[in-house]
Fold this protein.
Amino acid sequence: MAGSAIGLGNIWRFPYMVGEHGGASFIILYILSTIFVSLPIFVAEVVLGRKSRMSAAYSMSSLRPGKRVWKFAGYLAVLIPLIICSYYSVIGGWSMDFMLKSFSGFFVRTSTDEVTGLFGNLTDSVWKPAVMHLLFLGVSCLVVMRGVKTGIEKFSKLSMPVLFILIIVMICYSVTLPGAKAGIEYLLKPDFSHLTPRSFAYAMGQSFYSLSLGMGIIITYGAYVSKHENILASSAGTAVADFAFAIFAGLAIMPAVFAAGIEPGAGPGLIFQSIPFIFSKMGENLPVISGIVAAFFFIAVVVAALTSCISLVEVGTSFLSEKYGMSRKKAVLIVYCICGFIGTLCALEGRLFDAFDWFCSNILLLVLSFLVAVFVGFILKKEEVWDNVTNQGQIAVNGKIFPVVYFLIRWVAPIAIAVIFFTNFIL
Ligand code: PFF
């Protein structure tokens, strides 16, 4: 679960969301959303998966058959990963392009003035982002088709800690850049005047996205969780690890953003402008080290993106092959065509990319999370939830914690989601 949670959402999305929505004050909203809404939903999704032992498409409808709304929730849990996959692989394509550039020592050789413009050059190109996206999606689909996931899993278990260490190295360097102090202050000193009512929706959407919530992924993973596992503890552990990754990525990137004079609200390209700047600057004094760190960093980012994309492709593939009895090969090809088509449109038109990202994170993830909270809070009986969380009382769960979590699932999470959902439209 931590593997699914930690990905581009932390490295790519979190820093630019923070940059667009006012720095430290946004981070406070993000933390509040995570504690009071996302964590309870996380527990609810694991309970759903572990109780039904089914993938997200069928978990709710199998526990309470006959009601249309739970079937609808199941279909949403297939649709959302497909949409996310379409534009996630566009970012995967950008990362792959930067990885290839890093192999030839490009960032070290390019001056700091030029290096921040590389992302603009890439997205200005008519065909390159689309081709890189199709290539990246193709690799993910091939892995799913061939079922060589275990190899990738082993690789990602190695590359995740490597990525973490590289981010720490980059923080150490980034904070020494001239002008870096403003970036650190931006991340750590709240200025609430930057917040708007919509910031709440963005903070919650980011928190859901980062923890892979509201897309059916954690429900499906929950189906594999042993009944002896203390899910309250492991959910909290996942959230803490996920937050640590995000905040460290922010600490590596934001000082460089300010040092390079990049606009913090530059949008989805933020890391692709600021990170090459770090390597270019580092390359002035330490060219070999900078070249090596850059290459390993982008390899690790591509692997993180690939593992996420694989799980997204897998959702659509297994649904098509289970529901329509298709061969996996045919199912993967259909997923490739759908996501390839939507993603190509997103790669060619930035506004479409933004619209898809907004629609998923601020609308769809909220809808499914709301349904999950209502299902676990109101449709399942309290004893059923308690039995699942404590494995019929065998897992020692602090007697005071369960009622709090249950209250958050039943009341706080759905009400907060509903209020924030409507502010999206009204304000
Ligand atoms: N939570 C992931 C991230 O923060 O990058 C995004 C993600 C991963 C979404 C895996 C969906 C998924 F299946």
